[in-house]
Amino acid sequence: MNRRTSYDRPGRCIFCGDGAAELTKEHILPKAIDGDMVIPKATCDICQKNVGKMEDRIHRRQLLGPRSYLGLKGHGSFRDKRKRFPLKVETVDGEGSVLVDREDHPAMLLFPRYSIPSWFEGIEEKPAFTSAPAVTTRFFNVDYDLLWRKYGILRPVVGQCLFDDWNRYLAKIAHCIAVAGFGVDGFVPLLHERILDERPLTRSLQHFVGCSPNPPPVEKGMHFIRVCELERAGVRYFYVDIQLFSLFDMPLYAVLTGLAPGTPVPAWARSLD
Ligand SMILES: [Zn+2]
Question: Which residues, by Cβ under 5 Å, contact ligand 1, an ion?
Answer without folding.
Answer: 13, 15-16, 18, 44, 47
